[in-house]
Amino acid sequence: MKLKQTLSALALGLAGLSAQAQTEIQWWHSMGGALGEWVNDLAKGFNASQKDYKIVPTFKGSYDESMTAAIAAYRAGNAPHILQVFEVGTATMMASKGAIVPVGKVMADAGLKFDQTAYVPAVAGYYTAPNGQMLSFPFNSSTPVFHYNKDAFKAAGLDPSAPPTTWPEVALAAAKLKASGHKCPFTTSWISWTQLESFSAWHNTEFATKGNGMRGIDARLSFNTPLHVRHIENLANMAKQGLFVYKGRGNAADATFVSGECAMATGSSALYGSVVRNGKFGYGIGTLPYYPDVAGAPQNTVIGGASLWVMSGKKAPEYQGVAQFFAHLSKADVAAASHQRTGYLPVTKASFELTEKSGFYKKNPGTDVSVTQMIRKTTDKSRGVRLGNFVQIRTIVDEELEGVWSGKKQVKEALDMAIKRGNEQLERFEKANK
After folding, report:
1. How far apart are CA 207 and CA 201, in angstroms?
2. What are the distances in angstroms from CA 178 to CA 118, 156, 243?
3. What pairing do the DSSP bridges indicate for beta strands 137-142 and 304-311?
4. What is the pTM of this model?
5. Are 130 and 213 in contact, with CB atoms under 8 Å apart?
6. Beta carbons of 233 and 118 less than 8 angstroms apart
7. Cβ distance 62 to 6 under 8 Å?
């Protein structure tokens, strides 16, 4: 009896030691709702696949809030191992010398095979330094698409299988939706991203100089061309007629589409997961609208979403765990499941091919729009937008355009002022990082 008790105690002790030996990896993120559940499930899946490491995901608020919290934590010496940073924070993270460890180095140091060419080029390229080294892991990349309510289209006498593909068609559809009783025919989330940044790339037009900042931190904003003015004026006129309803900054408009309040919306492809889960209407996805008289349009849309950055100052076994987790996320079946569940772009070519072979795109029409928009051949004007102090620049754009929607500012005046104020931010960033 005593022997049994001794063996039991020994077993319990060993179990305790085993549990203590597990290395915890802190992961700060900004995914709420359905996407928060997805993040938690990814952590659970990895944790269940092995016993050496435990990913601990923690929601830290909006992208702005999590980045601010991480900077403060880094200065205090207790930063997380992994930080999710939205794409507008990329230039800032790249300039944070000593604060991050390039993901390519993390994978190499862990002795894991890491083929950068396995990742979707348009996505991986955005997070890669001029020397060719991938700096962050392309976790949840999205691109703007056109979301529409098929039931609302039917009620308005519109063809639910044929979403508008041009901006003139959007205005006509909005007028019919309004006539049928819809109080919010069209809205948009992330104004700067959808209506200026991606709009520019989609029309093969510059948003900023130096290849939209991809070729240097001395870039300056340039989105006050006749085309940009024309587009914002058209939206302003639609707003006056009740055809376009501004619902606020960031992704505030997303909820109004999911609820059925707004019939059409331009926003992230990742809205897909929320609509499928919570929407109670026929749902359609179309390409981002364009102006048919603009030569070269449509070109390609630009990246959105976020990537995972590895913070410095951690122990070797912890970085080993980070590397194992990234390798897990890169597995074709895991990456394909994430793409299909969320609407984010597939991380790797293999996950795209697996999704295509499974028949997912045929069963769910429109879910491949984000991919086809991104895999088009890019130009110097459409590779993406990577600017310093980009978070502040987007806030400036919001402020100036809100003056337009309220009727207090003329479009050219607002765009000129956004550029003037935005360039001051770029100059400040350039001086700080010379």
Report:
1. 8
2. 46, 8, 7
3. antiparallel
4. 0.87
5. no
6. no
7. no
247 backbone dihedrals φ, ψ, rounded to 5°:
-110, 5
Terminal C-alpha separation, the chain: 74
For 297-327, write each residue's pLDDT tens digit: 999 998 889 999 999 999 999 999 999 999 9
Give the separation between CA 267 and CA 145, rounded to whole angstroms. 6
Which residues, in sequence order, are CB contacts of 283 under 8 Å at separation 6+? 147, 148, 149, 150, 275, 276
Q: How many CB atoms lie within 10 A of CB 182?
A: 23
Q: pLDDT (tens digit, 9 = 90+) per residue, 21-49? A: 899 999 999 999 889 999 999 999 999 99
Spatial strand order in the sheet of 283-286: 184-188, 262-268, 144-149, 283-286
In this structure, the chain runs to a length of 434
Is residue 138 within 8 A of residue 347, CB to CB? The reply is: yes
The model's pLDDT over 227-267, given as tens digits with 9 standing for 90+, comes to: 999 999 999 999 999 999 999 999 999 999 999 999 999 99
